[in-house]
Design brief:
Elements lengths: L14 H15 L1 H16 L1 E2 L9 H7 L10 E2 L2 E2 L5 H18 L3 E3 L5 H12 L5 E5 L15 H5 L1 E5 L9 H11 L3 E5 L9 H10 L3 E5 L4 H5 L12 E5 L10 E5 L14 H13 L5 H14 L2 H23 L3 E2 L8 E5 L7 H10 L2 E2 L1 E3 L13 E5 L1 H5 L4 H17 E3 L5 E3 L1 H17 L8
Parallel strand pairs: 1-13, 5-6, 5-7, 7-8, 8-9
Antiparallel strand pairs: 2-3, 4-10, 9-10, 11-12, 12-15, 14-15, 16-17
The structure holds D-serine.
């Protein structure tokens, strides 16, 4: 045996043994990569991830994502694969589908999309023809690239018309209705990546029905809050619902498509019902082979989503976000819409003279993560911006309660008030403040280093 021989004395078919051997081999044979992966764990524990776009995956989810199913190639669906040898994967995909349906009360689930972007693209390609009109929230108002933004292929292939926000920062439903009547879109999208308020899916459905459009709800950011009833579910209201599995479900990189009461509706110009269209739309129309290991990780994450501890955790996410919004407001920061209904808190930093990019960089220097974000009527470019987007998913998972959010707000406030902007992208932060606050951030992070809500 060589030093690098990792064959065990007895060859078992045990998932845990395989992963343990894999980790040992990685540590011994590739210290450079192993070191980087370990540094990531240390960094995550030492920082305060006040971000909206991610959640912590339970170690058991990571384990499933690293399973031997990564060796399987199997196009098609359970029981109808193009490739042989997919028996175990069939079982895993069926489990993921059933768990997705149960978690969201859906009648149909497709767990194969590699991301929610893939899911959205597949839906658009299935239901629209190039040049068809769709109506969605403007990217600058908190929409998403795949909702017809100019920079995305969706804005290039489809005629995307956008509604925006009213003067208080809430979705302008009246404008959406006017635009729907004027442009007669084939599809309306209700969903956002930077919107702190509950979305009125019933109103959107009425608008869609009034012009015979289909309604797609993209709940990527809020899927956890929807699954546990913290926010109203669009699954039986919209024709189609899409979401990613990593943003708030503690799952792997990936997407899911859900259908509720309208699963068998046949859209105008089609011969098949929505479930059959989506099934074919993902495979073979849009994707080839799915990612079996990622689907195993989705199955595991969705099992956790259905447990009472996850509901308790999503309640904490929402309470923490409200506490964070209040604590920042008290300290003089303008919180858009005056608060939040979900996990997102949007802050106008430029009112205090800081661009989003400067604020993001100064916070990161001290170990606090929050991303620059455009805000309504922003005059700065997407790489500069006038605001920050905070989120409470990961801190809530680590056990931060509303009083912990007050401590986080205090640290954020101290850092941002100590920044002296030089230009839109350059700044100075006094070394003593940076050192002092970084130490406080590290101490607070160390008090809540890992998932408290691990099941
Ligand atoms: N959708 C992006 C965001 O919300 O930042 C990341 O996936």
């Amino acid at each position: 045996m060589t030093d690098l021989d990792y064959r065990p004395a007895t060859l078992t078919a045990d998932h845990g043994d395989l992963l343990a051997r894999g980790s040992a081999r990685l540590r011994q044979d590739d210290p450079e990569l192993y070191g980087l992966l370990s540094a990531e764990i240390a960094y995550e524990r030492a920082t305060l991830p006040m971000v909206a776009y991610a959640s912590l995956a339970d170690p058991s989810v990571l384990s499933a994502a690293g399973s031997a199913l990564a060796n399987v190639t199997a196009e098609g669906y359970p029981g109808a694969r193009y490739h042989p040898g997919a028996g175990q994967f069939d079982g895993v995909e069926r489990l993921a589908i059933e768990r997705a349906k149960a978690a969201f009360g859906a009648k149909y689930a497709n767990v194969q999309p590699h991301s929610c972007s893939s899911a959205n693209l597949a839906i658009l390609m299935t239901l629209l023809n190039p040049g068809d009109t769709m109506l969605s929230l403007d990217l600058d108002s908190g929409g998403h690239l795949t909702h017809g933004a100019k920079a995305s292929v969706t804005g290039r292939y489809y005629n995307a018309v956008h509604y925006g926000l009213d003067e208080h920062g809430f979705i302008d439903y009246d404008a959406a209705e006017r635009l729907a009547k004027e442009y007669r879109p084939k599809l309306i999208i209700a969903g956002a990546s930077a919107y702190p308020r509950a979305i009125d899916y019933v109103r959107f459905r009425r608008i869609a029905d009034s012009v015979a459009a289909l309604l797609l709800a993209d709940i990527s950011h809020i899927a956890g809050l929807v699954a546990t009833g913290e926010l109203a579910s669009p699954v039986d209201v919209a024709h189609i619902t899409t979401c990613s599995t990593y943003k708030q479900l503690g799952g792997p990189r990936g997407g899911i498509i859900l259908l509720g009461d309208d699963h068998d509706v046949v859209p105008p110009g089609h011969k098949l019902g929505l479930a059959a269209l989506v099934q074919r739309g993902i495979f073979p129309k849009f994707q080839g082979t799915p990612s079996p290991a990622a689907i195993a990780a989705k199955a595991r994450a969705l099992d956790l989503v259905a447990r009472p501890k996850f509901a308790e955790m999503t309640r904490r996410i929402a309470l923490d976000a409200r506490a964070l919004a209040a604590a920042l407001t008290e300290r003089g920061w303008r919180v858009l819409t005056g608060g939040t209904d979900n996990h997102i808190v949007l802050v106008d930093t430029f009112q205090q003279g800081l661009t989003g990019v400067v604020a993001e960089a100064a916070l990161q220097e001290c170990g606090v993560l929050a991303n620059k974000n455009r805000i309504a009527n922003d005059t700065k470019s997407p790489m500069v911006t006038s605001g920050l987007r905070f989120g409470t998913n990961m801190l809530a998972q680590r056990g931060f309660d509303p009083s912990g959010m007050n401590e986080c707000a205090e640290l954020v406030d101290r850092i941002l008030r100590a920044v002296r902007p030089l230009t839109d992208v350059e700044y100075e932060l006094s070394a003593s403040v940076q050192r002092e606050v970084s130490a406080q951030v590290a101490a607070l992070a160390a008090a809540y280093p890992i998932m408290k809500y691990a099941v």
